[in-house]
Structure formats: C-alpha cells, structure tokens
What does this fold into?
Amino acid sequence: MKKILLILISFAAYSVTGWSQTSTEYNNQGLTKFKAKDYANALLDFNKAIELDAKNEKALHNRGLTKYALKDYDGAIKDHSRAIELNSNYSNAYNDRGLVYYRLNKSTEAIQDYTKAITADPVYFTAYKNRAVAYYAIKNYDAAIKDYEKCIELQPASADGYLGRANAKNILKDYTAAIKDFSKAIELDASLAVAFLNRGNARFLLNDMEGALADFKKVTLLQPENANVYFNLGIIYGGQKKSNDAIAAFRKYNSILPNEWNGYKGTADVFYLQLNKYDSSEYYYNKAWQINKQEKDILERYGYSLLNQKKIPEAIAMFKNQIAYLPNDYWGYYNLGAAYSLGKQPTEAISNLNIALDKRMVELDYWQADKNLTNVRMLEGFKVMVKKYFTKETLAKYPMLFGGF
It folds into this structure.
C-alpha cells in the first residue's frame, strides 16, 4: 500500500508540473486579452508572468501598457522603467514610457524618452511621430517639422507625416505650404476629416472661401457630428450674407454642443446684424449670455436687441450688466445713457453720457448719427456737457450733434 500511495503522490506532482504555464505563456495569453481590451484579466496574466520570471522584460513592458490603459500612470512608468533596467536598448519601453509622461503633461521627459527610443532604433517611425507631437505641444514647431520630415522619409506612403507637418506650418502661418501638405495627406488617405477641416481653415485664412466651403462640406460627410465644422460654415455663410444657411449651421453646432455660447452668439448676430429680427436676436443673445456673461458683444447687442424693441427697462438692466462686468469700457456708459434718453430719463442719460465722455468716448460721428440721443440733444445740460470736452472749432464740424441748431 505504501508503494502504491507513493506512486500516486508522485504522479500528482508530475501532473501539476506538466500542466503549469510558463512565464512566456502567461505573457502571450495576457497579450491576447490586452488586444481584446480585456485589461483587467490581461493584468492578472502579466502579474503571473512576472511572478514566475521577474526578469521577463516583455511582460513588464506589456504590464506597463496595461496599466496605462487602466490609467495607472505611476504604475505604468515603474513597469516600463524596470523593463529598461533589464534591457537598456528596449526602444518600445522608452517610447511607451514617453507616452505616459506626455499624458501627464511632462513633455520634456517624454521627449527625452522618445529620443532614447530613436537612439536605440534610428528607424523607429512611431517614436519620431510621438516626439514631433511633444515638440508641437511645447511650441517648438521647427523641431516638430524636422521629425515629421523624418516620418515622411521613413514611411512616404503614410499620411501621418504630411498631416503633422501641415499642422505645424499652419501654426507658423505658412498657409500655402500647409495646404500643400494637407492635400498630400488627403491624397494618401481620403478619409482624414481633420485634414479637410484644417485645410479648410488655411484656405479661409487665405480668403479662399469657396475652397474652404468645399472642404468644410466634405467634413460634414466624413464626420456628421463634428461640431466645429458647422461653426466654420456658419461664419462663411454669414460673411456671404447667406443668412438662413448661416443660422442653420450655427444651430447645428449648438445641437451638438448645447453649452457653447459661440454658436448662440453666431445665430443671434445673423438675426441682429443682417435680418434686423430683434426678437430672435434677443432670444439667442440671452442663451449666449446665460453661458458667458462677460463677452462685450453679447452684452451690448443683447441690450440693443431689447432697446430696438422698446423694451427700455430690460435694455437699461442689460447695459448696467455691461458696466458691472466692464467698468472701464466707455461703451457701457454710453449705451446706458442712450437707453435712458430713449426712455425719456434725461438726467440719468446725461449723467452716464458724461461718464462715457470722461472715459474718452469721443467718436462724434457716432454721437451725431445716434437716433437714440434725440430726446436729449437739444437740452441745455447735454450741450454744456459736450462743450466741456470739445472746442468750438471741432463742434462746428458736427452741426447735427445738437439737433441742427
């Protein structure tokens, strides 16, 4: 019996040893799970691989990648660093540690790691591209361009190098060269919505509105939910006085980004400046103002949308808001004075107009043409106020400033 028992025990031990996985097998199993984005279980496999072989540099590197995916950035750095300690020429570990540093806004450290990756592997396309991105982030655009040029040299059939170089040239305001690179990127990959968008922006800045319009329309096909392109379309249509198209574009922008004030202001501007529909402009300026209460154009045009509808108390309240947020800007006092004038409150009107003059609101062409001042022009208090700031010779050039008398 003792012999039989010993045989059974030996067999069990042999079976366990025979079926146990190696460090390499756990690493490979973890990679499969990592690629399937099963990061939690991939981590368990890499942990086991490292437990079995603490010098398994690939498992350490892969666990670093997994921790990065799980947003354990400190853990990722530690694992990549351990892999590098085991293999000082481990280019992938340098590159991927650089990615972690970049994610943590440590661009200098990222650049150092990308450089080490390139030193270990001089034809490492991804490391050049990542270093270019980091250089771009710290506004070293010339260095970024050099790295993108290396990307083009290494992989001329890839759009990435051309796209990156184009973006850097765009920032440097070399729009013609940027457009050429964007066009090459599009030639290589016609699905690159960002290339169409940025080429459109460059064309817009060169006043090529039709070219920009064509590019932006292409973006709406490739990325129908790209909010920015609708804002850009709104700007172009507004500039072309295509009011309805502009309004539709701005509304689409805000349907995607309902908490962005720019779109509401864009819609309001079309109603206010082009269509003179002050009830509609009031509605959209109000929506913009609810989000941004310090933008001068919103405060001012919202107030005049109200004033043009003879909603004088509401306009006065809005111009008071303008003064509260921009106390050193003479326009708020002028606008408030104009609103009080229209509301037949001459004392308050002259008081605020006097402050505007004291703050150097001296555009007499505007004062003379503003119909909102009609109720105070001929008042003695108004004349005395204005004469304090201008000579007789200057005022003689503006005969209608005091109502023609």
